[in-house]
Design goal:
Blueprint lengths: L5 H21 L24 E7 L2 E9 L2 E4 L3 E3 L12 E5 L8 E6 L5 H18 L2 E4 L7 E6 L5 E3 L8 E6 L6 H12 L14 E3 L19 E4 L26 E3 L14 H10 L1
Parallel strand pairs: 6-7, 6-8, 8-10
Antiparallel strand pairs: 1-2, 2-3, 3-4, 5-12, 9-10, 11-13
Helix pairs in contact: 2-3
The protein binds zinc ion.
């Protein structure tokens, strides 16, 4: 009969416990230093001189300290670069965004079965818009592992994305190519990389009026303000992520009444031809 080596087991137990508590120590700690007096508050460095500038960051006016070339210090230990904020003079139209980022702007994707050549052409064109204008790369995969977009065709007259930003695992962009062009696919990729409908931005009431009384219940959420989202600058009427003032009979009760107007009652048309300055600024702020 084999003898059990108690000494060995004890040492293994200690090793296992020791290893798992090391693991726990590897988890980044929350930023609670300001609540614990004995711990030094985080700072970027000791530099306290330099040019200060007034900027708009996360929708608020803040003072930043220029500490290096294209490096701006905010609140002691937050280092921003020039894409992270706007200057008051720029009045930048920076769209609204949220959700997870795709690392290094690289989007992994694959086709579902049954995607027509028509939709493949539109998808290819939309990818090239994101590549050429915002330096995204798109990697077509054959497996179903990791995070990726499944590009799917539907015949229900729909175009949608199942996620704002990278969700983790599979997420879907589904398009009925009979009704939607490559610009609509650019819009759906916008959702998948983190852009939100411009009419949902938290400060939109300063710019537009939503006629909720005319919008059917299933659609009101498309017009509600977002939470956990960020916007800067002023409302961008040119955003590829903005719905038009008027909506179809599936969305509104009375198509002669706009779903949304500007504050003065005037209307706008949506555009699905190009990424606006604000769309680009939003992505550059997010990534
Ligand atoms: Zn959309």
């Amino acid at each position: 009969m084999k003898k059990i080596n108690l000494k060995k087991i004890t040492w293994m137990t200690i090793l296992i416990i020791g290893y798992s508590s090391c693991d726990k120590n590897d988890v980044p700690e929350p930023d609670y230093a300001t609540e614990v007096n004995s711990i030094t508050d985080e700072i970027y460095n000791t530099k306290t001189t330099g040019t200060t500038i007034e900027a708009i960051y996360l929708g608020r006016y803040v003072t930043l300290l220029e500490i290096d070339n294209d490096k701006y210090l905010y609140d002691g230990d937050v280092v921003l670069d020039r894409n992270d904020f706007s200057l008051p003079s720029e009045d930048s139209n920076r769209g609204v965004y949220g959700g997870g980022n795709w690392p290094n702007r690289n989007v992994r994707w694959k086709y579902a079965s049954g995607v027509s050549q028509d939709l493949k052409n539109k998808w290819t064109s939309a990818m090239s818009t994101w590549s050429s204008q915002l330096n995204f790369t798109f990697t077509q995969i054959s497996s179903s592992s990791g995070d990726y977009i499944l590009v799917e065709q539907n015949s229900s007259g729909s175009a949608y994305s199942t996620s704002i930003g990278r969700r983790g695992g599979q997420q879907i962009i589904s398009v009925d190519p009979r009704y939607y062009g490559s610009g609509n696919v650019v819009h759906e990729i916008g959702h998948a990389v983190g852009l939100i409908h411009e009419q949902k931005r938290p400060d939109r009431d300063n710019y537009i009026i939503v006629n909720y009384f005319n919008i059917k219940p299933n659609w009101t959420s498309q017009y509600d303000k977002c939470s956990n989202c960020t916007s800067n600058g002023s409302f961008d009427y040119n955003s590829i992520m903005l719905y038009g003032s008027r909506a179809s009979s599936s969305v509104v009760y009375d198509t002669s009444i706009p779903a949304m107007t500007k504050k003065d009652g005037s209307i706008w048309n949506s555009q699905r031809s190009y990424l606006s300055t604000g769309d680009k600024a939003a992505i550059n702020a997010k990534y």
